[in-house]
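Follow-up to my earlier ticket, as requested here are the two runs.
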Amino acid sequence: MEPRWNNIVTGIIGVVITTIIALVFWAVFADPRGPMRMYTPLWFFAITAWLIVPTIWLYLIFENYPFTKLPIKKRAVMIPVSVVITLICIAFFFYFYGPLAVPYFSWPKLESMGVAKLAARDYSCYALAYSAIVAIFGMGIWPILFNNWPWRNKVEQPALGFAVFALGLSISVFLFQVLVHPHFGEAFPISQKFVAATPWWKDFALTYHGNFIFGWFVWAVVYLIMTATIWEGKPWTAARKQPWIGIFGLVGIILLSLLTMYVVLSVMDINLGYAIPGGRRSAGLYWRYLHSAEVAGFMLYPTLALYYYFGNVPKKFSEEVNWAIRTVIVFVAGFIIHQLYYLAGPALLGVPTSWDSEAQLALVWATWWIVPLVYHCWFMDRWPLYKTPVTES
């Protein structure tokens, strides 16, 4: 596919269209001033995060099978299919898995156990949202870092998809149990120490809260997506052969994510003073870990837009220089978007005016913003902004 116009014009049009779509649906479903008012903020965050998970399944794992047989225009049918899968997944957690196995996944189940309505909603939506983030990473590891090794070019769809899906699901469940489940052992008024281990990070993170995990884990999601897009697999492909490329990439992304989180925390220390263990709002460590994740979230849209709408420019320099310039572009754009969100968000999106309000969760918009983009780029191959190249006979 090639841009219908030049990269810059096509890219700007793509950004404008997907942003307008995101704003319109936000006004209807999420804006606290609108008709649905689903920004609590965790309720809409849970829905938004789970809207992305089926796109990973359909596009990365099953490679759009069986919809590849349809013309590009008609592949828009994948959007309602993906939304229906999301609704089924949320219903599964609310009405089956939560009531029968793990109550904190089910808002109705927690209410029936005596948990206040608002608290029940927050507990279950926290679990849903972060299980989705874990699934995005866990499901993306094998197709992105390991290039579906050892099945690539040996097994066709849908068998390939089912194999990768099963492996990705296993990875995701394991990661959730180790990274998120311990948080819920301490989240309720009575410690659940016989059901969930004491958070293993408490001594060095100086908090029991699971936000420590997501302070670096959302960066891992960002770097995984960068690997698949603007980084074009580098620098992990330096290992040259699978599975070493995948292992190098996985370890490298985790270490790079931890480093990035601590850099962001250091910047917060410089601007806000040192955090206080047990402190509230911007003075608290749990808040700063969460806002490291939010800074990461603002890198998602510029990463995807640069790759899909702007043709992954530049390409005229060496691979290393192109890689570095693209990375700088994304970080600068992400920082600017981060600042604009807090300036314009209250008027445009209806989010709290206080940047450190406990009801302020910038990840909700940062995640929602990419939903129309991935629908357009992954399901419809950017039509009509991109077209099939005309070949000379």
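Run two:
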Amino acid sequence: MSLRSVPRWGNERRACSLGGLQVELESLLGIHVDLLTPADLAPKFRAKVLAEAQPV
């Protein structure tokens, strides 16, 4: 099982926040977590992923 997440925040916090959030989520959930920004998603399916995204 894994979790994929697309967080949204300003670029100035991106690298530090993504790494820390990924480590914390993996520790809490006990599963592998992939964190991507919208820009990291392939254009082919970016719109669909963002349309289906649910806030947590």
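The only thing I checked on run two: The chain has a mean pLDDT of 76. Let me know what else you need.
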